[in-house]
Amino acid sequence: MLPVSFALTSPDAAAAVVVFYDEDKTLIADPLLDAAAQGIVGDVLRHDDFKGTLGKTATYKVTLNTKPITVVVAGIGKAVDLTPLSLQKIGASIITALQSGQDAAAVVAPLDVGGSVEHAANDLAAGALLKGYRFDKYITKERPDVKKPKLSSLTFLVKDKKAADVCFEKTSAFVRAVYLARTLQNEPSNLLNPETYAEKIKEVFAKLPVSVKVLGEKEMKKLGMGALLGVGQGSAVESQLVVMEYRGAKTQDAPIALVGKGVTFDTGGISIKPAANMEDMKWDMGGSAVVVATLQMLAEQKSPAHVVGVVGLVENMPSGTAQRPGDIVTSMSGQTIEVLNTDAEGRLVLSDALWYAQETFRPKTVIDFATLTGAIVVALGDLTAGLFSNNDKLAEALYAASKEANEPIWRFPMNEEYDKDMNSPIADMRNIGSGRGAGSITAAQFLQRFIQKDVAWAHIDIAGVTASKNGKELAPKGATGFGVHLMERFFATYPLS
Ligand code: BES
Ligand code: MG
Ligand code: ZN
């Protein structure tokens, strides 16, 4: 993570300064630039068509005290309209400008808006770090087309350094969580398989107050997890169930359970997928990464919440030992499933993970994250995730959090008519619908059959949003970590009984 700091005055090393310009043509630069430099920048701006639009930047080279410096002018729209989210977007525009430049150290002018300079600086920093994430660990050579940014530090000017630093403890825990989710998601499936992933999770929590229990195939067999095990039986690598628990101050409360789909690679199994774009199926563990990252964040932030995480880590492969279309498996809940399509495997993994979470921890609230259906990509594209829930209060809380997080979710209907479509004539249910459309809803109906009485449950289908081809406002291209920001806002605002 790029080193970020807060300071009262500009560090001498800074070769680039960032100033702000709002739509009313006010240059917010003081005290970084002396009057002469301000004059130059102001002059350039007057002759430029730069309008101060939020998210736009312009870069100038000026001379300050005989030293050449880079000035990045960041548009902020109307200063009075700024929100935490728009500040994050400005932070993102700043990092994009700075990373394309040659300067190592940059300093950002104070922006005195809304709450406080310190909070504004934290939001700017969060946006810069979220957008500034890079996954370049496997690039071993200098290449003109993949430039490593020169930028090596970012300093934000504030009035109260202590307050900004304290606030940054929470901000940076959140950013680290997004980075963790993205890195887990971006890892290729030869290096991140169910076994190496389980080890990695143990490492993540080695120094945090989160207990980690890993169940291998033998233990899961004992528990009767035939649905999850069926998916992994074609793989050379053993399936794993990783169970995490964080007990914040509200440890007496029933926990909130987070459950994640962790298919480290989804070939489709015997119902094999077409070759084109199959590499995207390394992202099929995206939901589990959100769960792991959220637990890391809550522990680092010392959240008062009591939260458990359960992730089913499985590789869906075709082979001589793989399950066949038509197989009937018995889930931990005792319900039997006719597996008509081995590519509808996420719901099989989740059915046992959900049941295990409820049997073991008796949560009142369960939220699952899964790259579950191609149908959700058809419906919502890569901008919005699907929300399915049996509880209006929970759905509304998630919706409110999603707005604050700029991670849009949209609720879909569920009812008995859709549910009926999952009945099988020879087992309790089948794992695909009849083919009359609504594939994301029937998948959710399947999951709901594994939700116990009086449990408030939400399922978030992140198949379309987990990775981005072109990058987003607050994410570079590749894995987005979608869901972590949503959980950050959810736990910051949801009444924990
Ligand atoms: N991993 C896929 C869902 C997916 C599709 C994620 C596209 C990301 C992008 C899932 O396991 C799957 O293959 N679902 C099938 C279900 C169908 C066979 C009922 C699908 O959506 O096609
Ligand atoms: Mg095996
Ligand atoms: Zn699949």
Report what the structure shows.
The protein has helices at residues 35-47, 84-99, 117-132, 161-186, 194-205, 217-223, 226-232, 286-300, 346-361, 374-380, 392-405, 416-420, 439-448, 484-493; strands at residues 4-7, 16-21, 27-28, 57-64, 67-75, 105-108, 153-157, 210-215, 240-247, 256-266, 306-316, 327-330, 336-339, 365-370, 385-389, 409-411, 429-430, 456-461, 467-468, 478-479. With 497 residues, it is α/β, with parallel strands linked by helices. The chain has two domains: 4-159, Leucine Aminopeptidase, subunit E, domain 1, CATH 3.40.220; 175-493, Zn peptidases (Aminopeptidase). It has an eight-stranded mixed beta sheet, sandwiched between helices. Strands 1, 2, 3, 4, 5, 6 and 7 form a seven-stranded mixed beta sheet that branches. It is elongated, with a radius of gyration of 24 Å. The model has no long low-confidence stretch (mean pLDDT 95). It binds ligand BES, magnesium ion and zinc ion. The site of magnesium ion has 2 residues, from loops.
